[in-house]
Design brief:
The protein contains four helices and four strands, in the order ααβββαβα. With 147 residues, the chain is of the alpha+beta class. The chain folds into two domains: 59 residues, no CATH class; 86 residues, Arylsulfatase, C-terminal domain. The chain has a four-stranded antiparallel beta sheet with strand order 1-2-3-4.
Length: 147
């Protein structure tokens, strides 16, 4: 919950993609603080999202990773309604949902607009989206190595 009485709308919910790492640049922007231009920040200011439910997400895509080695780490790419998991380590599923198979754990692709519970793996039904998100993940992983 964000509260700035007299400044921000009250009691509204936002559906845009934002992350915890967005708070640093947001607070910096609100306070007028400057971030070092040579530092790469994954987060982006979400002031426009806070101010308006119609503002677009500041993230076209977002990548996150659990573990140091991308080849072994679990990683995720989110782009709009699409979410791709790779190297899934665990299979925590809603009650009544089948456990992930070995194939599902390699890559699991979900469309959150159609399947908010991420119950169906769309890898075989959406190969172009799978390849696009994998390509982005590899490019992002490479950029991390260069920093």
């Amino acid at each position: 919950m964000v509260s700035l009485p007299g400044t921000l709308p009250q009691g509204e919910v936002r559906d845009q993609l934002v992350t915890g790492c967005d708070w640093f640049p947001t607070i910096a922007a609100i306070t007028g603080s400057k971030t070092k231009p040579d530092r790469h920040l994954d987060g982006k200011s979400i002031i426009t999202v806070i101010e308006s439910s119609k503002a677009p997400s500041p993230h076209k895509r977002f990548y996150w990773q659990l573990g140091d080695n991308p080849a072994k780490a679990q990683w995720v790419v989110r782009e709009g309604d699409w979410k791709l998991y790779a190297n899934v380590r665990e299979s925590v599923r809603p009650e009544g949902t089948p456990e992930l198979t070995a194939e599902d754990k390699k890559f699991f692709l979900a469309n959150l607009k159609e399947d908010i519970g991420e119950t169906s793996n769309l890898v075989s039904k959406s190969p172009q989206i799978l390849e696009r998100l994998k390509k982005y993940a590899l490019e992002y992983q490479d950029s991390i190595g260069r920093e």
